[in-house]
Amino acid sequence: MKKKVLKLFVSVFVIVNFLITGIISFVQPETKTAAQTAAITSVNFEGKDKLVFFAYGNARIAVKQNNAKEGKKHVSVENRKSVWDSIGIDVKDVMTRGKTWVVSGYVRHNGKKPILFSITAVYNDGKGIKYIQLGERVLMPNKWEKISAKWKPTLKNPADLIIAIHPTVDKTTSYDVDNIQIMTEEVYMSQADVFKDTFESNTTVWQPRGDGVKIKVDSTKSHNGDWSLYVTGRSAFWHGVQIPLTKYLVPGKSYKISMWVYHTSMGKQGIMLTVQRKMADEQQYRYDWIGGSQIEGDGWVQIRGNYNVPKSGKIEELVLCISSWNPTLSFWIDDVTISDPTRIQQPNYALPALKEKYKNDFKVGVAIGYGELMSDIDSQFIVKHFNSITPGNEMKPESVLRGPDNYDFTVADAFVDFARKNNIGIRGHTLVWHNQTPDWFFKDSNGNLLKKDELLKRLKNHIYTVAGRYKGKIYAWDVVNEAIDETQPDGFRRSTWYNICGPEYIEKAFIWAHEADPQAKLFYNDYNTEIPQKRMFIYNMIKNMKAKGIPIHGVGLQCHINVDNPSVDEIEETIKLFSTIPGLEIQITELDMSFYQWGSSVYYIEPSKEMLLKQAKKYYELFNLFRKYKNVIKSVTLWGLKDDNSWLRGVFNKPDFPLLFDEYYDGKLAFWALIDNSILPQDTKLPAPPAIPKIKAKK
After folding, report:
1. Which residues form the active site (predicted)?
2. Residue 322 burial (CB < 10 Å; 0-12/13-18/19+)?
């Protein structure tokens, strides 16, 4: 995937020296408010249910009193011979048009292996019985697990409307159901909120950030309701609005932040969310990146991101800040929400370990940020599922360099320490790149570009310092990253490296990396390697380096792909070509699978079943391909732990779902395709549903 859009976001990191991906937490009791409880329609089988439940299809259901999820009773669904043999709930008078509804419930089955379950709306529109699958989840055997689904009905006065909770493929396994709940999306999501400010009280606890900045609760613009917060009087890019959060934080927890922003300036304006953090043992503030976007005027735009609160060290100060790259821009903010998704659904710690599935084939790795190391949940998932990690940004030149010969390895050391403590391999990324290298690196003290010999000397010192520091601790280095441009006659990217040194810097980098750490395997790493011209340039470069005795041990194929392109066959052509170079190892270094093609105008608010299955099928085919070439492919690394932390959400500025785990730390269909593909349906359609029985209304 092309990365030209990424350059914009990288420049922001250079300006403000962001180190961590993030969101902040307010802490409140994890109990539902009276208003939330009143807005929820529950079916818990305790004898006071307001909705009718019944056996759908040929199933038998029975209320039982053993080991319920909540309370004393639950329902058992038995005598199954079809996917539709299930429990049904009459919701015709509850799930009305014009609102988005969430249906949730707990299911426990006694199958011998995981089973895919569905929540499905079945209705009679006067032309027959039809259905809409609302959501699916793979559930482990003999364990109560939550399944939920969203739906915005568009049906006009259906004769019947029921919700069925049933296996998607399995036709015979008995299962139990408990605590079915129906509520609006707003109420459902509010259960995760630990802080929300809509400014509807016409007061504010926010503070101006910077001299001359003024803030006020304002009624001229609002996202929802009547009020928002107006920020004006700014004269520096860091000026804006802030709120202290220190006393509310829970160390080691992960949070989401969401807010809406509006401005009236012409053209796009950059808005950013950061956290100003000071630890007790540090002299300087750190600025942690949450999220940012280029926003057009005269329209509310949502900005969101994730944050992991540091789990070690004492936090002295932590402030959530909202500002703009335009130093004089005035703007409004509204509906600021900070939430903890694990209040809605607990992380699925019972998932089979991904690394165990492929332990006889290749390492399975993940690229992470420093924030994941600070999160207890993320750390547990990393250790369970992966035996290799890659620091996404934290070993790149701009992350470790503070000035000429001035290095800060605090964060990079944390990655190495984590890997060694947990017996996980670590890939170093990256020593030489045209992006995320400070501009001063190429210049002398007067701001003039260095001569070739001077720049090569500086490069040698950098490689010796970084690779030498971790000698024997890092099993592979991406020595040179993305140096090929297939549009150039000779194939070399016209970067500052090339413009000063020519292609010689590439060979020198490998020589010096090998001298600094003779044990590490050294890789050339690049994207779009499926393009025939590009892969031939890379192939010829590596082959020539090998012929010269340059210590290059492998090629890294990034594999930033999407569900449509490139095809698995095109990826195989690339693998086949590089596998012809004797002794060359191949690693898949940055794998993710976007829902979008580059430049696509498509927008997915929620992933559809069709897209999730399409993605799962391609992941399944890819890993089968990697297994086919396991004699040369020794490592496969996913570029991110879960969907909501993916870099692609920043690039496309819209929801994307490119990875194996969702925001609730649960395995997606793509994950299960890699564990046991037989669990998944081979067709997106279910058989025709049976008739809806005549339902007697509750008195």
Report:
1. 590 (nucleophile)
2. buried
